[in-house]
Design brief:
Two copies of one chain form a homodimer.
Chain A lengths: L2 H16 L3 H8 L4 H9 L3 H14 L1 H10 L2 H9 L3 H10 L2 H10 L2 H10 L2 H11 L6 H4 L6 E3 L4 H11 L7 E5 L5 E6 H6 L6 H4 L7 E2 L4 H10 L4 E5 L5 E6 H19 L12 H19 L1 H7 L2 H6 L2 H29 L8 H31 L2 H31 L8 H23 L1 H4 L1
Parallel strand pairs in A: 1-2, 4-5
Antiparallel strand pairs in A: 2-3, 5-6
Chain lengths: ~450, ~450
C-alpha cells in the first residue's frame, strides 16, 4: 500500500471501529493481504486491534489465522490472550506450527498448558517439538510440515502421493529420504515436470544438498541461504534424519531481525524497542542502558579532574579538549561499524582478526596524521601558538590510534566471549575515546603548560 | 564452510598459487560452490585472484561464469578488466544479464563499447536495456530472462513449450500474459502438477498478482517480497507489459546492501569501505568524512570559548561538562537508530512522523528527569555542593530533550529532502548534543557561578 492510501485506511478503520460499523470495517479490509492487515494493526491501539481481529475471525477464520501468522509474536500474543480459549485453539490449529510455537511460548503458563491440552494430538506434538530446540536455532524457525519422497519411488507414484497429501506448504524443493528418513537428495518441481513418469526419484535427484542442523544458529542458516541463493534449506538432526525445512521468507525475517539487533545493540537499545511503543514503555526499556552509560560516561570527569590545575592556568585546554574527544569518537564509530557489519556478514573469520586489527590501526594512524596536521596547522594560523598546534595535532593522532585499536578490539572481544559483537559497543567506545582523548590532550598540555598559559 | 577449514583452504590456495601448482589449485576448488570460491577470492590479493580465476576458466567455463556472478561487481570488474577481450565476451554471454549489467557498467568506456559490440545480439540487448533503468530500481536488478505463458494455452501445451525452452532460470512462479504481453496472472509449478492436461491456463491462474514497476526503488521491491513472503516478483512497465522478474536471492542481496548502507551512512562511512581494502584505500575513503566531521566538531570549542571566564573561576565546570555532552550523545544515538531503522523497514510513514517526534521527546524528557535527578543527587552526595547538583541535573534534562528532538528531526529531515535518512546522522547529532550540552551546562554554571567557584 502507498503512504497516502495507508493513511486513509488507518483513519477509516479507526472511524468504523469507534462508531461500531463492523460490516463497513470488514468490507474495508476483506481484500487486503494478511500482511497489510497486520501492518494496519500496528497503527491501532490494543482495544481497536481486538475489534478488528474479531470481525475478521467471525467472517473468515482462515484470514484471521493468516493475520496472526503475520503479526510479531509479541503483538499476536496480546490479541490471543484476550480471546476465549476455544477460539485460541481453533486459531492455533489453523496456523503453521512454526508460527504457533513462538506465540504459545509467550502465553501465561496456565493458559499455555490448557491450549496445548485442547489442541489435537498432531499439531501439539509439532509445536512441543519446536519449543524443545534452543532459541534462535534452525530447529526453532523450521517448519516440521514438509513433504519428503522416498528415494525408491518413481515420479508418477510420487505425484499421486503428493496429490493425496494435499497442500504441501511452499514446496519449492522436494527432499528425498531413505527408509530411515535420512536426507539423501533433493528434486525440484521442475525436474519433476520434465521427467518420465517411471523414472525412479533416485535417478533425477541431486545428491549434493546443502543442509543445516537443528541446533545451527539462525544467523548461520540465513548465511547459508543467502550465500547459496536458496529458497529453502533442509534441517537434519544428529542422525542425519530430515526433521524440518526453513523457507526463505523466514530467512528474510531472520536477516531483518538480526540487523535490527546489530544496530540497536551498538547504541545500547533493547531490541524490542519500537516507535509505536508508549513513551513510558520506551523509557523503561532505555533507562537501564542509560544508567550503565552514566557509569561509563563518568570516567571522563574523573580523568579531567586530575588536570584541574593545568586547566586553571590555561583555559584554552578546556576549550579544545572536546574536539580531540569528538574526533576520536567519530573515527572509532567508523571502525566499530565496519567490524560489526563484516562480522555479521561473515567476512571476518578468525584468520583475519589480527589482519583486521593491524589494518584499522594503520588507517587510524594515517587519518590521525592527516587530520592532526590540518588541525594543528589551522589552530596555529588562528591562535598563533605553535605549542597549542603541536599538542592538538599530537593528541588527535594518538586518539585516532586509540579509537582504531579500541573500535576493533571491542566487537572482536565481545564475540570471543560469546556475546553479541555489537553489544553496547558505542558506549564503551565513547568511554575510551573520551577519557583517552582528555588524558592525552591534557597530559600533553600539562607538559607544555608554560607555553599555553 | 567452517572457519577452520576455510583457514586451511586459503593458505593452501595461496601456497599452490605461489609455487605454480595450478592442477592442485584446481583440484582444491573444483567441488566448491561458486559462492565459496567467491568468498575465497575475497581473501586473496588481485594477482592471486587472477591466477585462480584463469585456472577455473580454463577447466570449467560455466563455473568461472558462476563465480563472476557471485562476486561483487566492483571485485568482478577488476578481474574482467585483466582478461583478453574475447574471454570477457565469452564470460559475459554465459552469465545472466542482470549480473552482467552492473559489471559492464563499471568497465572503462572504450572496453565497454567493444564488449557490447562483440557480444551476440540478444544478450547485448538485454544488458543495454537493464542499464537504461535508474540505479537501485527494480529495472536494474530484474532478470529479463523469464518464461511467460499465454493465458489462452492449456497446461499440456504449456509444459511442452517449457520443455522446448530448456533452462528457465529459477522459475518458481510462472507468470501469465495476454496477447499484448500484459501481466494477467500467475501459476505455480505446483498448480501445474495437479491440473488436468487440457485445462486452460486462464482457469488455474491466480489473477491477484503483486507486481512492481521498472522504476520502483529496489528497497520498496525488497519490502514487497519480504512483507508478502514471495520468492519472486514480476516487474511491469507503464503499459502493464511484463518485462522482468526479481528473485528472492537478489532481494536478500538488496536487504543486506541497504542495511550496510544504513549503518555506514549513520557513522559517515563510504558504503564501499571493506575490511579487506588496503589501509591506503580506506584512509582515502574515510578522510573526506573526517574532514567534514572536523568542521562539525569545531562548533563545540567555539561554544566553550565563550565561557572561558566562568571556567577559570570554577574549573569544576570543565570537569563535568563532558559528562553532560556524552549522555546527550548516547541518548541521541538511541533515538537516531530507532528512527533510521523504522524508516528502513517502513514503519514510519508520514502519518506518524509527528507522533514519532512527540513520543521521542517525551522519552527524552522522562529519561532526562530520571538520569538528571540521579546524577544531581550523586554529585551532591560526593561533592556536597547543591548548586553543582542542580546545574548538572538540569543540564542533563535539557540535553536529553535536545538529543531526542535532534535525533528524530535529523533522519526525518534528511528523508524529506530526499537524502538518505542515515547520512552522517551521528556526526550531526554529536555536533548538536556536544555543543548544546556545553552551552546549557556552562550557561547554567555561569548563572550560579558564585556558588560553584
Amino acid at each position: 500500500m502507498k503512504v497516502k492510501s495507508q493513511r486513509i485506511v488507518i483513519s477509516s478503520a479507526r472511524k468504523f471501529i469507534n462508531i461500531g460499523a463492523l460490516t463497513r470495517l470488514w468490507n474495508l479490509v476483506k481484500n487486503f493481504h494478511a500482511a497489510d492487515i497486520a501492518s494496519l494493526m500496528n497503527h491501532l491501539i490494543l482495544r481497536e486491534r481486538l475489534i478488528l481481529f474479531n470481525i475478521i475471525y467471525e467472517k473468515d477464520k482462515d484470514k484471521s489465522a493468516e493475520v496472526s501468522s503475520e503479526l510479531d509474536p509479541e503483538d499476536a500474543v496480546q490479541i490471543v490472550e484476550a480471546l476465549p480459549i476455544e477460539q485460541i485453539v481453533v486459531l492455533m490449529q489453523m496456523m503453521p506450527s512454526d508460527d504457533v510455537a513462538p506465540i504459545i511460548e509467550l502465553l501465561p503458563e496456565e493458559l499455555k498448558d490448557s491450549v496445548l491440552t485442547l489442541m489435537e494430538q498432531k499439531p501439539t506434538e509439532d509445536v512441543m517439538e519446536l519449543l524443545h530446540y534452543g532459541e534462535e536455532t534452525a530447529g526453532r524457525i523450521m517448519s516440521p510440515n514438509f513433504y519428503a519422497l522416498n528415494e525408491k519411488t518413481n515420479v508418477s507414484d510420487a505425484i499421486t502421493a503428493m496429490q493425496l497429501e494435499g497442500d504441501v506448504e511452499s514446496a519449492f524443493y522436494l527432499y528425498v529420504v531413505n527408509d530411515q528418513h535420512q536426507l539423501k537428495g533433493v528434486v525440484s518441481l521442475r525436474q519433476f515436470l520434465f521427467a518420465l513418469p517411471n523414472t525412479p526419484i533416485k535417478n533425477i535427484m541431486t545428491t549434493d544438498v546443502i543442509s543445516v542442523h537443528t541446533e545451527t544458529d539462525q544467523e548461520e542458516v540465513a548465511r547459508n541461504v543467502a550465500d547459496y541463493n536458496l529458497v529453502a534449506i533442509p534441517v537434519i538432526d544428529t542422525e542425519n534424519t530430515l526433521v524440518g525445512v526453513v523457507t526463505v521468507d523466514d530467512i528474510i525475517d531472520v536477516i531483518e531481525q538480526e540487523t535490527t539487533e546489530d544496530i540497536y545493540k551498538m547504541v545500547s537499545l533493547d531490541t524490542s524497542d519500537r516507535i509505536q511503543d508508549s513513551p513510558l514503555t520506551s523509557i523503561k526499556k532505555r533507562l537501564p542502558f542509560l544508567l550503565l552509560s552514566l557509569l561509563t560516561a563518568s570516567v571522563s570527569p574523573w580523568v579531567v579532574s586530575h588536570f584541574r590545575g593545568s586547566i586553571q592556568q590555561a583555559v584554552t585546554l578546556a576549550v579544545f579538549m572536546p574536539l580531540v574527544a569528538a574526533l576520536g569518537g567519530i573515527a572509532g564509530n567508523q571502525t566499530i561499524a565496519i567490524i560489526v557489519r563484516e562480522l555479521a556478514i561473515g567476512q571476518i573469520e578468525w584468520i583475519s582478526a589480527r589482519k583486521a586489527l593491524s589494518k584499522e590501526i594503520l588507517v587510524g594512524i594515517g587519518n590521525g596524521i592527516v587530520i592532526g596536521t590540518i588541525l594543528g596547522g589551522i589552530s596555529y594560523l588562528l591562535i598563533r601558538n605553535p605549542y597549542l598546534g603541536l599538542v592538538l595535532g599530537l593528541a588527535v593522532i594518538i586518539n585516532l590510534f586509540v579509537a582504531a585499536l579500541v573500535g576493533t578490539i571491542i566487537p572482536l572481544f565481545l564475540k570471543l566471549i560469546k556475546l553479541d559483537p555489537a553489544l553496547g559497543s558505542v558506549s564503551l567506545l565513547t568511554m575510551c575515546t573520551d577519557s583517552m582523548g582528555f588524558a592525552v590532550f591534557l597530559g600533553l598540555g600539562t607538559l607544555f603548560l608554560q607555553h599555553l598559559a
